[in-house]
Specification:
The chain has 244 residues and is mainly α. It has a domain at 75-243. The protein is built from seven helices and no strands. Helix 4 packs antiparallel against helix 6 (177-205), helix 4 (71-136) runs parallel beside helix 7 and helix 6 runs antiparallel to helix 7. It is rod-shaped. The model is unreliable at 19-42 (pLDDT under 50).
Length: 244
């Protein structure tokens, strides 16, 4: 037969055991920084697996790790990643600015080259008319031997001038202004699109979470994505000039 004191001890032990079971369930379940299971909308790291460098075995920080970290440590981590992240974004922005300047320069040179060719071909047409006029008067005794000399020398000069025009035309074709302008325009669109995408992702998946574990996880994932995107953009731009 148990005494009232023993029954109280058994009740306290049962309550303590129930509490331990409850805590075990809470620890086992994934909990976000706001006390709820992380959804796919709030955590970018949960949406896509992080890509590890090939041939390197590294340990990733888990959300539980960041939950146990101090808020100032989390804030310092996000701030440092933000600095590195913005460096990549700024480089992409400079790339698109440089592409715009190159595009404008190529277009300006192309227009100048076309104007030069138009004037040169116009002068060639006038010289051909002069050759025909002199040839028509070569037998006219009134002009004497001067016309005969001009009739012989002028076609030679016109032929040499036509050869110069052909050289300039070949140089213009070699420069390939139009295709180069198109490539610079493509480079501008490619880098600007990447820059806007990275800016959008940071504002959507890091800034709203301040110094929470979710912010740390998303910042790490986005920094990795920014490095990969930068490599992809530069790789595509390096492939294009080989086709010109």
């Amino acid at each position: 037969m148990t005494t009232p004191g023993e029954r109280d001890d058994e009740g306290r032990q049962a309550a303590a055991e129930e509490k331990r079971h409850h805590l075990a369930k809470v620890v086992a379940s994934p909990v976000s920084a706001h006390g709820a299971p992380p959804s796919s909308k709030s955590s970018l790291a949960m949406q896509q697996p992080m890509r590890r460098p090939a041939g390197v075995d590294l340990e990733e920080q888990t959300e539980a790790y960041w939950e146990n970290a101090l808020p100032e440590d989390r804030q310092a981590y996000v701030t440092q990643l933000n600095t590195n992240y913005q460096t990549i974004v700024d480089e992409l922005l400079e790339l698109q600015t440089d592409a715009i300047n190159q595009f404008k320069g190529v277009v300006t040179r192309y227009k100048a080259s076309r104007r030069r060719m138009i004037w040169m071909t116009g002068v060639l047409a006038i010289l051909n008319i002069a050759v025909s006029a002199v040839a028509a008067q070569v037998d006219n005794e009134a002009f004497g031997t001067t016309v005969k000399v001009v009739a012989v020398a002028l076609p030679v000069l016109v032929a040499a001038y036509a050869a110069v025009i052909a050289i300039f035309s070949n140089i213009e074709s070699l420069e390939n202004y139009l295709q180069r302008a198109q490539l610079y325009r493509h480079a501008r669109e490619l880098s600007l699109t990447a820059c806007r995408e990275l800016e959008m992702l940071w504002h959507l998946y890091v800034r709203p979470f301040n110094d929470s574990p979710t912010a740390c996880m998303n910042a790490a994932s986005l920094y990795r994505r920014a490095v990969t995107k930068d490599q992809e953009v530069r790789g595509q731009l390096m492939e294009k000039p080989e086709k010109v």
